[in-house]
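Tutorial handout. Part one gives the primary structure; part two gives the three-dimensional structure as tokens.
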Amino acid sequence: MGDGASEALILDAWHANAQAWEAAVREGRIESRKLATDQAIVELVLSRVPRTVIDVGCGEGWLARALAAQGIEVLGVDAVPALVEAASAKGGGDFRVVSYEDMAAGALKQRADVVVCNFSLLGGASVDALLAAVPALLEPDGVLAIQTLHPLMAGVEPYADGWRDGSWAGCGDGFGQPAPWYFRTLGSWVTAIQKAGLTVLAIKEPIHPHTERPASVIFLAGASYRGNGDEQASRRSVSRHRTE
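Part two.
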């Protein structure tokens, strides 16, 4: 199956399973999220002390609500209208239907201190194009945070980039056909981030308290071009005046 067909199947599956996913998240059915990964991504974002966040692939909005509860202004975007409607109904942010293709084309004009992708980067070429658009979404000294399945814990063989069959295992009942996903090795994730004009600042591995093994991997990245100290100070000053 070609890259384009697989990308389309991702969206088809999420459109068809939006209601089941909303229930799975809100009922806390996914053990690894409940015990490790939800807290890990919230703590990482909060550690940056952001005033603004863009939640890419926000789903039903749980992360946006958690961050908004800490006084952060959150814009949540997702390509699935049913999930955006569910997020909007709960509040906690500004939620919009925006496809990854539209984001890659520059449709989103906002900037944020943190752009976060929490288990929302499933494609191949679509993810590469989206990552390339991220530097333009970051405020001075802003960062990108990506949480995804840990490649070494995913049980994928061979350990090589490529499309894999998806699964809703561990998510509970009510799901139909799962979405395919594009597997990347650890090295390939780093390469994809670097090709987008970003520098990996940290890699974190939240540990599952029961298995004592990584439940996920989180990449923290910033824009590769920083300029000299005076330029950075000037950009930060402009950012502060723009938001005050």
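Part three, for discussion. The radius of gyration is 17 Å. The CA atoms of residues 102 and 207 lie 35 Å apart.
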